[in-house]
Amino acid sequence: MRILALPAFKNRRENPYNAALYSAVGDFPGVKVAEFNNRQLLLEGWDIFHIHWPDTPLHRRTAMGVALYSFLFIARVYWARLLGAKIVWTVHNLHSHDSAWPRIEKWFWKAFVPLVHCCIHLSQSGRDMAIATFPGLKSKAHSVHRHGHYRGCYLDQCNRPASRLLLGIPAEAPVIAFVGQIKAYKNVAGLIRAFLDAAHPTAILLIAGRPGDSAIGAELRGVAENHPRIHFHFGLIPDDGMHFFLNACNLTVFPYRDILNSGSAILSLSFDRPTLVPARGAMAELRELAGADWVYTYEGELTGSILAAALKRATAASHMAQCDLSRLSWECIAAGTLATYRAMLGRGMPSPVIKSAPVLSTANHS
Q1: 260 and 237 in a common domain
Q2: 330 pairs with which residues across the strands?
Q3: Which of 48, 49, 259, 265 could form a disulfide with 281 if both were Cys (CB 3.0 to 4.6 A apart)?
């Protein structure tokens, strides 16, 4: 089986999800996974063309750039179909978070969706929302395979006291953290306002990640008003530095205005940090999977009282030491993904609708 993936391994530094998935898929005998490039697509034959984040062409700065790259992307997918490849789309998002050209985006989805043979979803609720958003998907094949954990994907050698010492955080202070890329839809400004409203006398708010642009960073510093217990660490977090921020905190918070799935929440759980997320998208399913002691959800807007209550729970002495993520084993997810491929190719799977099989063992390493 020959699988062309976009992306497969090249985004490992930004998000290990794809590399972890395709490393596990490629461990099966007779399976080849290759990174997408134009030459391979045009000149070689593939059984599966697996696409993640198809909206990437919509992120260009100009309307002409968005239109051109969108057209070229659709042409590539169409060509892959002509050569006999099955088009598989993992639905991470239902629309572009950054596109400034809604008319082109509307055309893009109208052109892309009919080309898809099968959708892979990270949750059942995500499947339902995708079909509601794109009615044309109703006639497609669908599979549900969870987002895998990140254990083993990042260095994890610095404990809480050492991490706090390195970051200049008091050893006994309760610490709330937002870790990851900082974009407008992630509502980090709302988190800062809730922290100020909570008025906790000793709590620290740690915000680490690269802002989408300089205006976002300036806005956050303006909202914080030089508060001495709000710590900013702007910039791309290196793989060997991620553990400092996650091990230093008691609670992570991701107050997204728009959320379907959250790799950031799973990353937090992979470091055994409770996380607070809005009760939207697949977050209720994540709470059911990981447990209510690890995933806290809230309705409406994040407030100081909600944040204070979550921090109190996260710092309770009775909190469990490790989050059980055995159901997010990459081996299981890879096996389910491969079963989906085989179903699309008519290679031994009777039904095009598959869910991940039960996990039989826990494995470290999306």
Answers
A1: yes
A2: none
A3: 259
CATH number at residue 115: 3.40.50
Q: What are phi and psi of 102, to 5 degrees?
A: -60, -35
- Residue 252, phi then psi, degrees to nearest 5: -105, 150
- Could you tell me which of 2, 1, 5 has the C-alpha nearest to residue 88? 5
Is residue 200 domain-shared with residue 107, that is, in the same domain?
no
Whether 142 and 206 map to the same domain: the answer is: no
The one-letter amino acid at 319: H
Q: CATH number of the domain at 180, please.
A: 3.40.50.2000
pLDDT digits (tens, 9 = 90+) for 5-62: 999 999 998 899 999 999 999 999 999 999 999 999 988 999 999 999 999 999 898 9
Exposure letters 167-178 (e unless 16+ CB within 10 A, then b): bebeeeebbbbb
Residue 136 main-chain phi, psi, to 5 deg: -65, -15
Q: Mind listing the pLDDT tens digit for each residue in 178-213?
A: 999 999 999 999 999 999 999 999 999 999 999 988
